[in-house]
Automatic annotation (TrEMBL):
Domain of life of the native organism: Eukaryota
Domain Peptidase M12A stretches: 62-259
Name of the protein in question: Metalloendopeptidase
Lineage, top ranks: Eukaryota, Metazoa, Chordata, Craniata, Vertebrata
Residues of the active site: E161
Pfam families named among the record's database cross-references: Astacin
Keyword terms: Cytoplasmic vesicle, Disulfide bond, Glycoprotein, Hydrolase, Metal-binding, Metalloprotease, Protease, Signal, Zinc, Zymogen
Cofactors (names): Zn(2+)
Amino acid sequence: MTAPAGLLLLLLLGLSQAHPLQEGSREENPDTVDITTQILMTNNGTNEILLEGDMLVPRTRNALKCYNQNCRWKKGSNGLVTIPYTISSEFTSSERQVISQAMNAFRSTTCIRFVPRQNENDYISIENLSGCYSSLGRVGGKQVLSLNRQGCIYQGIIQHELNHGLGFQHEQSRSDRDSYVRINWENIAPQNAYNFNKEDTNNLNTPYDYSSIMHYGRTAFSIQGMDTITPIPNPNVPIGQRNGFSQWDITRIKLISCYTICYY
């Protein structure tokens, strides 16, 4: 191989690595960023008012917590929680496959069943909008779940947003979080500090889960990439994974499906 030909081959290889293909299974984000960073980067272009980075501000209630069953997807007499959905025709067949695989993770481990909408009034509408975001719990009528094609079509992100649609908040918003993580307020811009508010959560008698797919990454809403969340007592515990449900995620989905519980 001549020197110019070898140089050209290296250049082409470098370009292919810098711009990974966007088609295929997309089971994981090929980038090295955590799930929160990916979601927040994608949501930079949205005009929606979002809480904690990817939850739509409730329009039908004045808080992120409900006190009745209206915001809960109902369990049928067969013991299954059936959630109708539609999906935009803007998604390619391979993107639809990734979305379907993410939904099947609920089917294979819990009693949640996402089914194509027939004529149900309450349903989730999966759309290619300007970010990765969802409402929290069932809101009634058409419920938009945004999965931008350029940044959200990864199983971990889809499962994260679908879990919001079931009513689950972020793990580090738990009422007992201060016993498990330290929030580094000095590394958070003041206008973003509200994203780290604690919520009055029902934790279902389950332990704090650093490995939850609902946990922020350690640099979420960071000033210049500094850590905003530090696990305690061991600061090296990984958080913000994007590979799929943890065992406690699965347990909580099962619990929320069996009892009159809206949010944990």
